[in-house]
UniProtKB/TrEMBL annotation:
Entries under InterPro entries matching the protein: Phage_tail_E/E
Organism: Candidatus Pantoea varia
Protein name per its UniProtKB record: Phage tail assembly chaperone protein, E, or 41 or 14
Database matches in Pfam families: Phage_TAC_7
Amino acid sequence: MTDKTTPNEKAVELDTPILRGKTEITSVTVRKPQSGALRGTRLQALLDMDVNALITVLPRITTPALTTAEINEMDPADLVSLSVEVVTFLLKKSVLSDLATA
């Protein structure tokens, strides 16, 4: 479902493609957000995978850049997949290595 692209990017294959005009989006790349991309949200809300916080941040860190309307219409399973990548980017490397060995 999720393909590792680079340490600062993750490609997520969508279960349900997004239609944008005549184009079908089947994969979305999520970039590790810089602090400025997180403005207007609370970090805890993102860690809780709060939908409103994700709707704010995802258009800033996805390629192709998803619109608010596209995120609102997205399959919940695809939103969770994108959310997991966002949360993973927010964790310290030491936490990630601890999770890998647990």
